[in-house]
Amino acid sequence: MELNYKLYRVRELADNDEDFVAALAAAFLEEVPVDAERLKIAVAENDYYNTYQAAHKMKPTVDLFELGILQDLIVVQDWGKFEKAGEDCTKELELVLAAVEKATAELKEDFNL
Length: 113
Fold this sequence. Notes:
Elements: H1 8-13, H2 18-44, H3 48-64, H4 70-81, H5 90-110
């Protein structure tokens, strides 16, 4: 139903090929939740390198599906990239994780995956 994600840019990229749209949705489900879990663990362990790597990898897909948390993801990414030990990015991380969880559940239902 596209409540927690948007397919406008996905359909534009796919030139309205619904099979390709479904393949991109399946790729989202295969990769983004795994990367989000990696991100969660990396932040909890103050692992700057893996925080940056996971967030950077997620950015294009989060942007393509318009989850509405790109800026929050960038905050988390930059926390890792610039090793901002004195800063707390848990609020932004929680927003990212919640958005990924909602979009994942909705994509599974919408695409019967």
